Structure formats: structure tokens, C-alpha cells
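Sorry to interrupt, but I need a hand with the structure work. Could you add the entry underneath, on a fresh line?
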Amino acid sequence: MQIDILTLFPEMFDGPLSLSILRRAQEKELVKIRLHNIRDYSTSKHKNVDDYPFGGKAGMVMMIEPIANCIESLQSKTSYDEVIYMSPDGELLTQGLANQLSLMHNLLIICGHYKGIDERIREHFITMEISIGDYVLSGGELAAAALTDATVRLIPGVLNDETSALSDSFQDNLLSPPVYTRPAEFRGWKVPDILLSGNDKEIAKWRYEKSLERTSQRRPGLLGK
């Protein structure tokens, strides 16, 4: 998979892309992640990328030309399955959507900033808009990093145990059950006996029941799905 990310602040991705699972995925060459500074595609003398909104309103808007130039430059070399804009009014990022995106070959992700991007970019280039929640961030970089992580970890071969992702929360519209590790007893706090029994069938039953219980208590809306 190849993921191209358009941003005004590529440095914000240094940590997320260079550590843990995302780093290993790139080292295994299972995913190629490229950052593109939108400012590099500005044709103005001072590399301007924002301007005041028509009609008058507080804040600034990212200009159409640098973004369009960047998208078209990349599209001349790569055919993208989706051109994604990270936006608070986009489709909510879910595990199901991450599963869907993980099957694609080339993704282009655009990070907005200020009051957003010129609407004409959304009208003529964007094929999908994604939100990570009902709140507003200073820019789309953190949201793009979350989308990238959620998607890349599902690519076959990225996780050492490929069955691990199948037991994540939301894969079956249930929250994950409680998990424990050694020691079996700490300060008198004990791991449930069933998990130490070696009875795989009963352990699976216990985990399913605990998933149902936790989901009904914390996210009952998921059970309707």
C-alpha cells in the first residue's frame, strides 16, 4: 500500500510514523508513506497557502491553487483508490471503514488547517471525507495519523500475530473483553480462574460473555448493529 499525505506541517508526523507498528510496517515494505508539504506547491513569492474568506468571516482559508497543484502532480504518477479529506463533517472513522481502506492500494490524504480548505477542492478532487469524532482539531494532521495507524495495522503481515487484529474492539461490533497477563496474583488481586484453566472452549465463551457485558454497559448502541 502507498499512502500520500498532504500537509502544512509534515514534522507533526515524525513521531507517529517512526515508531512501533507503523515503523515496522514501513521497514517490511508493506506500506510506503510519503509526506508532501503543500507550501512547496505555492506559486507565490512568499509561498502563501492561506487567504481571507470571501464574504467576510473570522479566520483564514487554505487556498485552492497549492492544494490543486499538489494533488494533480501526484495523480500524474499514481492512480488513487480514494482522495480523502480529514474533516469534522465527514464520515465517522470506524473499524469497518478502516478494514475497507486496508484493502486498497493507494490512498491520498489531505490535512486541512485554519478554517478549512477552499470548497472547490472538496467539490472537484475529494472522493471521501472522514472524521475521527465530533470535535474540532487545529488541523487534520492528528486525524490523518489516527486514520493511517488504524488502516495500516490491518494490512496482512504488519502485526506479528495476524489474528490479533481480529479480536480488536469493534471488529464484531463488540468491545474487547478484559485482558490479563503475569503474574496471576498481585497484591491479592487475582486473574479469573477460567483464564488459567487451559479450557479453550470455556475461555472463548467467557470472553464473549464479557464482551457482551462490557458493550452493554459502556456502548449499548453498538448492540443494535
